[in-house]
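User: Hi! I'm working on a homework problem where we have to compare a predicted structure to a textbook description. Could you give me the structure for the chain below?
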Amino acid sequence: MSTSSLFKWRHFLPKIILLNVRWYCRYSLSYRDLEEMMQERGMEVDHSTINRWVLKYAPELDKRIRRHLKPTNDSWRVDETYIKVKGVWKYLYRAVDSEGNTLDFLLSAKRDSKAAARFFRKVLKGQHTHAPRVITVDKNAAYPVAIETLKEDEVIDQETELRQSKYLNNVVEQDHRHIKRIVKPMMGFKSFNTARRTLSGIEAMNMIRKGQVEGVKPGDSVSQVKFIKAIFGIAA
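Assistant: Happy to help. Predicted structure tokens:
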């Protein structure tokens, strides 16, 4: 989708929309926080409008960064964390490599072998991921079943090692904290689709923050802004 059609009929400039989406997905801010911050800059933007922006453009941000992601290595660290949706805990499957680079993520209503297998299939489709040499998981009994299914279907190599070690999985558990810190002010999501779309933007910003995209160094906020404007075709 072209930039002109993507922002068609919006009453604010694309750079203002992306600023709010980027801040919401990057920092521990509520929609009302952003509404007040825009007021300080002389712009009246209702928090519900910012909410609609995030739901529309967060998935688009995730989609557009994919082709720019740097290759990850073949040592996977996989774990799931909890996300509350309509007062009920759901499961966010996440994977990073041994250096802490995000491989992919998947929000799931269930925590079982089918959900785990679906997540692994998604990770394997990534342009920036390599077939795993070793997959490190915790003691969740669903993972060995999922891996066995994938081997039977010849999705992953028979030689791929599954290693169940909570200690070695610290790198992905530490990475959960960046996501949970941003999700916390949201006080849970009202629907599964809302959670899925919002989390895609949060995960995308997390990858950008870590310097996983070409031309962006870890923690360099200036280059992050330039990169996001560039992939949306917005003049600096």
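For your comparison, note the following. The domain at 75-178 is CATH 3.30.420.10 (Nucleotidyltransferase; domain 5). The mean pLDDT is 94. Good luck with the assignment!
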